[in-house]
Write a structure and sequence with these properties.
With 484 residues, this protein is of the alpha+beta class. It is 35% helix and 24% strand. It has 15 helices and 19 strands. The chain is elongated.
């Protein structure tokens, strides 16, 4: 088997041969009348007309020998068979194709639509030209790119050789299109908020830090889709807003976590978390039906149907049921002991982090669809308190053992909000890198007044669960360590 360097050297020689024949191996434009998909759709009319048409695409396969070759072209819409017969063109043109073309090249072909002897819709080539000469080969059809890291580094080849992966990327685009349409049809205004912030807000995560040289200030890449900014829009009199955008979290990589991903957040004035839960149920069902054509899914050993009744799960009761820990009475030491007993690793020493870790252990046993409710204020610093004064009006959809969103009746009491920010500030001073940064200008906005509001956000994790794929697999170009 030839080495890559030998293959590259051979193809460089073919480039020279093309140039000697007066053919530019990398022209700016080549003949192309329409996509292959349209060629196949209009095939009957094209065949009947007998007129020559031009198609272009990448060579995916070449078979045959002697005076006839069967070449498979792919242009991103569909594949088509191009039949090269020496009798249909000059011998020099035919021989030049044989001598200079390889699987992986982009070519343009001109000829007539006709079916092959086996009845396959084909184009019988009369002339051709090179569109882009490849120097390196495509992966083997069956072996492909087996190494995961190599697949992620050469994602362009992964998409080319893996139709299922291509289809998932198309579905992911539709996932966000359906989401956008859903909110616009319900009167939500799509807005854009800053991605560079002086303080991060709206979530608990370690941020990425950068520096603004003109202002000479340190800034952070946002960790939420403008939560504190969209709430300012509520104070400004906009009744409903939403944003779909990228967020950045300087955290570990796992099947459920990435450093850069797309999220959506909406804010709805004069609505509470009950309204939010009803809207989210409708949203998730709409996404499932319009993107996947079904409402029943399997993921990670779980099965769930989004048309089933959504169970409401009490945060403290569920933890006590699964672990025996009463979170209202348990000390930090007792929670640590339980985590050690369960063989669950944890980071951080404060009760907020320990409770969050304990809950994440419990949620793995919940298939859903369900809403987690009645969170303690310690783990929900932006949510309004319930009437009991012991828990918050926060909700999280649970599917297949994972949280796939978070929303609340938003806290609009400036005094309460300032006190909770002070708690988060003390956590930060104690070394908690995921504690929420206090934002006193946000508190000032609340002092001017913000109406009762429901806010909610979700991200790509929902798509990953519905597609039954790891989150990283669904990134077009996952972040990779540089080659050593």
């Amino acid at each position: 088997m030839a080495s890559l360097e030998e293959i590259r050297s051979g193809r460089l020689a073919k480039i020279k041969k093309l140039k000697e024949a007066g053919i530019n191996p990398y022209p700016a434009k080549v003949p192309r009348d329409f996509p292959v998909a349209q060629f196949k759709n209009d095939f009957a009319d094209l065949e009947k007309s007998g007129r020559a048409v031009s198609l272009a695409g990448r060579i995916m396969a070449i078979r045959g020998q002697g005076a006839i070759l069967f070449v498979v072209l792919f242009d991103g819409t569909e594949k088509v068979q191009a039949i090269f017969k020496k009798d249909d063109m000059s011998e020099a043109v035919f021989d030049l194709f044989v001598e200079t073309s390889d699987i992986g090249d982009f070519i343009s072909v001109t000829g007539k639509a006709a079916k092959s002897k086996t009845g396959e819709k084909s184009i019988f080539v009369e002339r051709w030209t090179m569109a882009s000469k490849s120097l390196l080969p495509l992966p083997e059809k069956w072996a492909g790119l087996q190494d995961i890291e190599e697949r992620y580094r050469k994602r362009y080849l992964d998409f080319l050789m893996n139709p299922e992966l291509r289809e998932l990327l198309v579905k992911k685009s539709k996932f966000w299109d359906v989401t956008r349409t859903f909110f616009k049809e319900r009167g939500f205004l799509e807005i854009e908020t800053p991605t560079l912030e002086l303080t991060t807000g709206g979530a608990e995560a370690r941020p990425f830090q950068t520096h603004h040289h003109d202002f000479d200030v340190d800034l952070y890449l946002r960790i939420s889709v403008g939560e504190l900014w969209q709430k300012r829009m509520m104070a400004a009199g906009f009744p409903k807003t939403f944003e779909i955008g990228r967020v950045y979290r300087n955290e570990g990589t796992s099947p459920e976590h990435l450093q850069e991903f797309t999220n959506m957040e909406f804010y709805w004035s004069y609505a509470d978390y009950h309204d939010g839960m009803n809207l989210v149920k409708e949203l998730y069902k709409t996404i499932a039906e319009k993107v996947f054509g079904r409402t029943k899914f399997e993921h990670n050993g779980h099965t769930f149907d989004l048309t089933d009744e959504w169970q409401e799960i009490d945060y403290a009761e569920e933890i006590k049921k699964q672990t025996g820990v009463d979170i209202e009475k348990a000390t930090e030491k007792e929670i640590k002991n339980k985590l050690d007993e369960l063989k669950v690793s944890y980071q951080g020493e404060n009760k907020e982090r320990l409770l969050d870790t304990l809950w994440k252990h419990c949620r793995k046993n919940i298939s859903g669809p369900a809403f987690l409710i009645n969170h303690p204020a310690l783990v929900a610093p932006l949510a309004k308190m319930s009437e009991s004064g012991k828990t918050t009006q926060m909700f999280q959809p649970i599917l297949a053992g994972s949280e796939v969103g978070r929303g609340y009746s938003e806290l609009n009491d400036p005094i309460d909000q300032k006190e909770r920010f002070e708690v988060q500030g003390r956590l930060m001073e104690a070394g908690d890198e995921e504690a929420m940064m206090p934002d006193l200008e946000f508190v000032e906005m609340l002092e001017h007044g913000m109406p009762p509001t429901c806010g909610f956000g979700f991200g790509e994790r929902l798509f990953a669960i519905l597609a039954d794929k790891p989150l990283r697999e669904l990134q077009a170009f996952p972040l990779m360590r540089p080659r050593e």
